[in-house]
Amino acid sequence: EIVLTQSPTTMAASPGEKVTLNCLASSSVSYMNWYQQKSGASPKLWIYGTSNLASGVPNRFSGSGSGTSYSLTISSMEAEDVATYYCLQLSSYPYTFGAGTKLELK
Amino acid sequence: QVTLKESGPGILQPSQTLSLTCSFSGFSLSTSGICVSWIRQPSGKGLEWLATICWEDSKGYNPSLKNRLTISKDTSNNQAFLKITSVDTADTAIYYCARRVRLPGSPFDYWGQGVMVTVSS
After folding, report:
1. B58: Cβ contacts below 8 Å, ≥ 6 apart
2. With an 8 Å Cβ cutoff, are A30 and B104 in contact?
3. In 3D, which of A22, A24, A21 has the Cα closest to residue A5?
């Protein structure tokens, strides 16, 4: 099983601040996907295929990485970005999610 | 327009079998490359993938649930199903179904709203 370790677990960022969320895989994966989940809502596809923004995602978001190390970056934090972000690998069964990074506003 | 909607019993007792239905529209599980998965989320916790079924009837299961899971589909009625046997309180969660087109780099692109399942005596 590929274990995904997300860091940090929780972080607070000020408006305008650059934010980087990390996802480390225990074995190499081909691509990484990211989901945003706000309280009481279903997860929303945010970034797929490592670096492709889902429809409607602001371009202040970006994704990068390869092998075992992936990241989601927000170039300039906004209040609406407050949420929990999960990474997901679909390279091999069992599919696995990271435990999530909770992003708060400072 | 792709939509998915989960349905289930709401509440059930320990040791019973949980039966979930995912009813979908806007795509067909007989189309090459299409898969439907089940994912769950206990309250306040993270997401856990449970099982996947694809157009050609291939299946994948989360080994952490050992042999308790059975996924199936009814292509004619645009539905996918998940059964979990011998439930206990740890199975209390929101259960989601999601679609994926099985191509490199493709994600779970559409999700249902989720259905809450409570296991309680």
Report:
1. none
2. yes
3. A24
pLDDT, tens only, A25-62? 999 999 999 999 999 899 999 999 999 999 999 999 99
In sequence order, the β-bridge partners of residue A103 are A11, A83
At residue B117, the pLDDT reads: 98
Joined together, the tokens standing for residue B11 give: 């509440």
Average pLDDT over residues B72-101: 97
Record: contact A97-B47, CB cut-off 8 A: yes
Distance CA A90, CA B45 (A): 20
Cβ–Cβ of B49/A48 closer than 8 Å?
no
Q: Is A24 on the interface with B (CB under 8 A)?
A: no
| Residue located via tokens 């000020």 | A14
